[in-house]
Amino acid sequence: MSIDESDAGGSRPPPLAERIFLGLNAALIVAALIVMAVVVGWNVTLRFATDRSLPWADEVARYTMIWLVFLGAGLALREGAHVALSSLQGALPARAAFIVRAIVLVLLLVFFAVMIRIGWDYMMRAQFQLSAALRMKMSWVYAAMPVGFALMGIHLLLIARRYLRHGFDPATPEAHQ
Questions:
Q1: Which residues of 87-114 are buried (b: 16+ CB within 10 A; e: fewer)?
Q2: pTM (2 d.p.)
Q3: What pLDDT, on the 0 to 100 scale, is given for residue 80?
């Protein structure tokens, strides 16, 4: 089910602001993937055809991949695609599973906040460092970490109610919202 459809179980699609947020997040990922594919493809073609390559292509591919990972982590979190130990929750009574999920949710939010702070520190330390080929500030690369963890926090907060009720069970009616 897409984010724009409601299911027969009566649950509503996400609010417009959330759908826009999801669409923008996904569009950034697609744009970054296109950039990376075009640059790498062009560089491979040049190597094959001319025995030369673009000196900056590897940096663009590497830094784009870093941004792809951090931009996509929040969307993966929404789908329950990260590694998780769900067998404990499945073996517990409903109330105990809810409590475990609440603890996990709080711990994740705290972890995301800590990682935003650490990522911000890394970004600030790299603000005067330049990349070798592109000569761009490395703080732009390191910015992926606080941005990515902030996005994961936002995604987690947006699905918190569903997660507390059902975990990341893909069989639940709201799983793909």
A1: eebeeeeeeebbeebeebbeebeeebee
A2: 0.86
A3: 85
